[in-house]
Design brief:
343 residues; alpha+beta; Hypothetical Oxidoreductase Yiak, Chain: A, domain 1; Ribosomal Protein S8, Chain: A, domain 1; seven-stranded mixed β-sheet; 10 helices; 17% strand; globular
Length: 343
């Protein structure tokens, strides 16, 4: 798999986005985010975002749109993103949530009417590095991916959740779909002609199967926990919908789609028992977790995000690994937008 220098990839993405109408600053931010996500190892939500949105800028997505705060009270706020790129909506939400958390100890910002945000976890890294805890949840009103427990018809999107908190080293960062598989991962399996290692899908008649292709043919993906314990993912997904409804976003309603919605919660430990005490306790507990005896034949015990930070450091040193097909598609976008330097 070829590697592209980290900064070259970020600049390429930024230049292509600017050519589609984004301001230089906005293009740089989005280019940096998708490159960070790709380098972190989240291949389903990295530069794939650029491939998905480049053709929509100037059409379905207004590159000049600006998110607007439409309600604000103490530690809470609601933003109407005006259909802007999800990454730019998240940037505004982060600015507001971090400032409010510093002032109030806890903050929650709800955002409605945004395009695809991409992976949530990478957005939380710098918040955790600044000493705070963060949680993000998202949903898409127009998606029908998961059926309720006992049902056949899909009524939920895959509703991701991301969590991050600081430690004495790299932050702990978790980013996961409340479905057994994200739609990006399902697409990878289908394109590769592969099946899941276990039945994780329902066909349009409600039969369990390991074939991911049924999701695109009236079927659905099971919740986290699968066929035996999917009620846990079901409850988490329903919680994502409830948080979305707080901000005036549409709890999943394909007949009244409002693009994507998400919430961002930020917590300042200084407002509780203090940042120093929090970091000391998490340092102790994380060491305790990693001291558990490893099972024979397994990888070393890792904390969530540890593998991603290792991949990120390697990508910054050696370049970001990209599939040849991805490089080809990116260069097609670059050529169509007069980006001079190909990858």
């Amino acid at each position: 798999m070829p590697r592209v220098p980290y900064q070259k990839l970020a600049e390429f993405c930024s230049t292509a986005l600017a050519a589609r109408g984004l301001s230089p600053a906005d293009a740089r931010y989005v280019g940096d985010v998708v490159t960070l996500t790709e380098a972190f190892g989240i291949k389903t939500h990295g530069v794939t975002v650029l491939l998905a949105v480049a053709g929509q800028l100037g059409g379905k997505i207004d590159p000049s749109a600006r998110p607007r705060v439409v309600a604000e009270s103490g530690a809470a706020a609601t933003i109407d993103a005006k259909g802007v790129l999800g990454q730019l909506a998240m940037r505004r939400a982060k600015e507001l949530a971090v400032a409010k958390a510093r002032a109030h100890g806890v903050a929650m910002v709800g955002v409605r009417n945004t395009s695809w945000v991409g992976a949530l976890g990478p957005f939380l890294i710098d918040i955790a590095e600044a000493g705070m805890l963060a949680m993000a949840t998202a949903q898409s009103s127009a998606c029908e991916d998961c059926a309720p427990i006992g049902g056949i018809d899909a009524t939920f999107s895959t509703n991701p959740i991301a969590l991050a908190f600081p430690t004495s080293g790299d932050p702990v960062v978790a980013d996961f779909s409340t479905a057994a598989y994200s739609m990006g991962r399902i697409g990878q399996l289908v394109r590769a002609g592969r099946r899941a290692p276990e039945p994780a899908f329902l066909d349009k008649h409600g039969a369990l199967t390991d074939d991911p292709a049924v999701v695109g043919d009236g079927g659905s993906v099971l919740f986290v926990g699968g066929r035996n314990f999917g009620h846990k993912g079901y409850a988490l997904s329903l919680w994502c919908e409830a948080l979305t409804a707080l901000s005036g976003g549409s709890a999943n309603n394909p007949r009244s789609p409002q693009a994507q919605s998400f919430t961002l919660t930020v917590i300042d430990p200084e407002a509780f028992a203090g940042s120093d005490g929090f970091l000391k306790e998490m340092k102790r507990f994380c060491a305790h977790v990693k001291a558990s005896r490893p099972r024979p034949g397994t990888d070393p015990i890792r904390l969530p995000g540890e593998r991603g930070f290792a991949a990120l450091r390697e990508a910054r040193e050696k370049g970001v690994p990209l599939a040849e097909e991805t490089v080809r598609k990116l260069n097609e976008i670059g050529s169509a937008n007069n980006v001079q330097a190909a990858l």
